[in-house]
Amino acid sequence: MNMTLKKKLVPSIRFPKFKKEWERKKLNQFLTHSKKKNKDLEFDKSEVLSVAAEAGVVNQIEYHGRSYAGASVAPYGIVRKGELVYTKSPLKAYPYGIIKLNESKDGIVSTLYAIYKVKESANGKFLDYYFYHKPRINRYLKPLVNIGAKNDMKINNEYVISDFVTIPNYEEQQKITSFLTAIDSYIQQLTRKVKLLEQYKKGVMHQVFSQQIRFKNDNGKEFPDWEDKRLGEIALKKSSSVTANSIEYNNGEYKIYGATGLLTFVDFYNEEQSYISIVKDGAGVGRVLICDAKSSVLGTLDIIQHKKGNNLKFLFYSLNNLKFRRYITGSTIPHIYFKDYSKEKIKVPSLSEQEKIASFLATVDEKISLTRKQLDKMQTYKRGLLQQMFV
Fold first, then answer.
1. DSSP string spanning 258-275?
2. Residues pairing with 23 in the sheet
3. Among 73, 142, 194, 292, fewest CB within 10 Å belongs to which?
4. Pseudo-torsion of CA 218, 219, 221, 222, nearest 10°?
5. 320, 323, 329, 333 alpha-carbon torsion, rounded to 10°
6. Does pTM top 0.85 for this prediction?
7. Tens digits of per-residue pLDDT, 92-117?
């Protein structure tokens, strides 16, 4: 006799205390549709809320404070802190809409949004994680958006809250939420640290290149005054003939760089020593990158090397400090030419001071890189947990 074993409704990772299966229940056991409008103008246009998504990641509900072309905010829905908001607009990253918890203050949302109050039987933050944790959850949202003849977006709220979700008891919801919130807090700390380090680097670079900060030699003596030079006096340029099509089926151990950084690995290299690459045309024109030895770049990038008596990394930081915008030509596809920006006047210290500056700024970059790696690791860890902590 053929029998299909019923799959247990339990997540792959679970806190030891909890043994009971999760249950499939309708959302109306946890949510109720809020119909409260801003008719009495409790909120003004400066307190407009919106849901944002970028690169497939749902951001916090944000305050935009924009006037929406002078539209009246009287019909807008009032959303309280702790309520859920569903955007009906099919965003590129989440084409079926987004359900997101409002963790900010009270505010209003336009008529493109639906608002749901969370009942005492559910944890709003848990539901927030639940709807975010896997893209497949958005299968609920696809049929919810009805586009009429005038492309008018409407939603059947009763359909939303009568749909089924698989959910644990309230105590387990709280435990999961508390754990994931702690991880989010650490991710926010790392994000803030990266931002602060980047701001610190920007400020220090300004002070270094304006000579507000000067270094001393190993004997504690002042270095010579900086000299006025053209960029072309300390740098030289090479071109690459490598095309994207030529490496399409090429696999190897050597790096090849494109406009956004490391592109892939191929079985050849054109540059024996480390060098600087600059995007010379397209959207990323002027982007500067230090490239490893025994690597190559696509033909859309220039190869920059330092001339004898100069330091490559100092040249790299000098180029980061250079405003390439003034050298852009072309209205359709922006382009920069070495023959133009090589005439830029820059102040250049002695080689010994260049090395001191490069070493100091490289240390700051290493701290930024390390913190970014920690952030990436935690974000990956969280994604893995989200896939295993929910049914």
1. ETTEEEEEES--SBSS-E
2. 167
3. 142
4. -10
5. 50
6. no
7. 545 556 678 888 788 888 877 889 99
How many CB atoms are closer than 10 A to CB 94? 21
Nearest one of 89, 82, 86 to 106, comparing CA atoms: 82
The token duo for 58 is 């749902």
To the nearest 10°, the Cα dihedral for 177, 189, 369, 208? Answer: 170
Identify the structural domains of the chain with CATH numbers, from first to last.
23-167 (3.90.220.20), 170-223+349-391 (1.10.287.1120), 227-347 (3.90.220.20)
Is residue 15 left, alpha or beta, with left meaning phi > 0 and alpha meaning psi from -120 to 50?
A: beta
The dihedrals phi and psi of 123, each to the nearest 5 degrees, come to -100, 120
d(CA 314, CA 316) in angstroms, rounded, equals 5
DSSP 326: G
Please, which residues have CB within 8 angstroms of residue 321's CB and are 6 or more apart in sequence?
205, 209
* pLDDT tens track for 361-386: 999 999 999 999 999 999 999 988 98
Query: SS3 for 143?
Result: helix
CB atoms within 10 A of CB 48: 20
Contact at 8 Å (CB) between 206 and 320? no
Q: Are 380 and 210 in contact (CB under 8 A)?
A: no
End-to-end CA distance of the chain: 29
Residue 319: partners with Cβ closer than 8 Å, 6 or more residues away: 276, 278, 288, 304
Report the alpha-carbon distance of residue 248 to residue 270 in Å, rounded. Answer: 17
Single-letter amino acid code for the residue at 316:
F
Burial of 138 by CB count in 10 Å (0-12 exposed, 13-18 middle, 19+ buried)? middle
Relative orientation angle of helices 124-132 and 170-209, to the nearest 10 degrees: 70
Look at residues 27, 102, 25 and name the one whose alpha carbon lies nearest to residue 58.
102
**Rg for the chain, CA atoms, rounded:** 28
